[in-house]
Amino acid sequence: MHIHPSRIGFDIDGVVADTMEAFIRLARSGYGARVRPEEITEFQVEECLDLDPAMIEEIFRRLLEEPIACGLRLMRNARRVLTRFAGHGPLTFITARPQKKPIARWLKKELGPQVYDRVRLVATGEHDSKAAHIKEMGLDFFVDDRAQTCLQLAREEGIQPIVYRQPWNQGKHDLPEVESWRTIHALCYGEGAW
């Protein structure tokens, strides 16, 4: 299966942005909480971590409103792959984040203004309304880390979801998955093109 880079879209958190690393770092530095990545076995972290719900809410609020100040990072190799994809068409990101501006500023900083000029960004404010935007953008494939979103997309005509493997989506789907941006690159250019 070879995918044209302009026909694939991406969720942000857990796919493009290493939100898990940022959450764990902020929990440790701001609250003294020790969390290991493998402990985050549910998309809703309050369902699997014995942490104060107010603390969890505060960390995620900061990540939503101040991703640059929080030191949110790109996933490993995302910049390299997205820069190459930008040469073949627009880069499409559809996120459940409620506000577009903070994550748009972060994307521009992380990808650079030249690549960012190729970005189409939709902030839906909810997880379950991505299908309409994916179709509107003319995408055939969509990479997301939330198993429930991917299972919903699988029921839609003309959309092939691809799960970005994370501890919280294991054993919850039987869909195609990728484990890294190198794997996403291979879907478009083949195994030997890295």
Terminal CA distance reads 16 Å
Strand order of the largest sheet: 3-2-1-4-5-6
What sequence of helices (H) and strands (E) makes up the elements?
EHHHEHHEHEHEEH
**What overall geometry do the principal axes of the alpha carbons give?**
globular
Helix and strand content put the structural class at alpha/beta
- The tally of beta strands, per DSSP, is 6
Q: What proportion of the residues is helical, as a percent range?
A: 25-40%
Describe what is shown at a glance.
The protein has helices at about 20-30, 55-65, 80-85, 100-110, 115, 130-135, 145-155, 180-190; strands at about 10, 90-95, 120-125, 140-145, 160-165, 175-180. By secondary structure, the chain is an alpha/beta fold.
